Give the backbone structure.
Amino acid sequence: MPKALINGLGVHYQRHLVRGPDLVLVHGLAANLAFWYLRVLPLLSRDFSITVYDLRGHGQSEMPPSGYTTADMAADLHGLLDHLGVSRAHLVGHSYGGAVALHYTALHPDRVASLTLADARIRALQPTQRLRDWPNAEVWKRKLKELNASVSPDDPEMGYRFLEVLAEAKVQGKNWMSRFDGTFSPFGMSNKPSRTAERWLRLLRTTTARNDFCQTAGLTLEKIHRVHHPVLASFGESSHCLPSCWGLKRHLPDCKVVIVPRTGHFHPVVRPAFFGRKVRKFIREVGGSRVNS
């Protein structure tokens, strides 16, 4: 399993090369490159040379004590692309990975061909994420009650807190098998131990990540306005990140919005065929060569 030494740490990555445009998939928090591997990557691999990798602190990449802002992770992405000799790529980012991809595009516009943001929460557009503001908030409250989780509906960072609650339940072996976001749970659907859940809790509790995730880190509205690339904003119809979706539409000059029906935040893996078709169609329309209909 290849690793590259990027900014002083080992970054785990995988490549699937064909004679097509470069496409880089960036996963979100509490996940790893496997987020894309089984469901999304097979749908895109015949048309693109694909790179997937583990964000720092995730998967098999190293976990430094600090450096988890979108700016830090954009610097990792830049180093990885340099290491691989990728001069220009289409970027697809889910959740926090979308914020990383957007930040990278603002900093290195010449290295990006197009940008797909899948349910990305952008802090400059959505400063808080309170449970009471979520679509289907009562459903999520019941799920938290099932786990005996003490969480305030006014917690401004409920997205991160929810992941922590789920990870704690997973590590403790609690039965929380009620279907999470349709057919996907970030830590697996069984009651078996999860290394991903354990690693997520270690990241939150032994590094500066919890604080770093909450920083704008320079991804301001002014910087977002500099992005003139074709952008696909793909969001689930019951997503808690929809304020970011409509903010992207307002502030980006070339932004196409797709609302994925009957799903929420994890729509790329809940409805992978739908997501894969939209990404391929979008890149074909913006000039991605060798992309079939």
In short: Residues 70-84 form the longest helix (15 residues).
